[in-house]
Amino acid sequence: MSEPLPIELTQAAATRVAAIAARQGKPAILRLAVDGGGCSGFQYRFELAEGVEEDDVTVSRDGVSLIVDSISLDLVRGSAVDFVESLGGSAFRVTNPNAASGCGCGSSFAI
After folding, report:
1. Does 17 map to a domain?
2. Any domain includes 105
3. pTM of the entire structure?
4. How many angstroms separate the CA atoms of 53 and 41, rounded?
5. CA 67 → CA 11, 86, 88, 98, 105, distances in Å?
6. Less CB within 10 Å around the terminal CB: N or C of the chain?
7. What range does the domain containing 104 cover?
8. pLDDT value of position 99
9. Does residue 2 form part of some domain?
10. Confidence category of residue 62, pLDDT binned at 50, 70, 90
């Protein structure tokens, strides 16, 4: 039995990353980092990455990679990164089972 992935990239998120990367002429690599700040204590930061760093954990789906540095991974382990479109706009969203609370914007959380 294989060990569960430390973090998941949904189909919708992989499709969106591939489209953005193709439009910008960059590799299809999405970096998720956790920074201190935001309205709940920590905030998620997403960016396209040029490559993988030595301490990154990588998960892949359909040719798209999601990378998370080892320090941030401690705060998001077991999470799923999704891409959600709604009347309020579209955004990458993290479903984090480690978060004790979040905020209305969905980009900030507390442990």
Report:
1. yes
2. yes
3. 0.86
4. 26
5. 16, 26, 27, 18, 23
6. N
7. 7-110
8. 77
9. no
10. very high
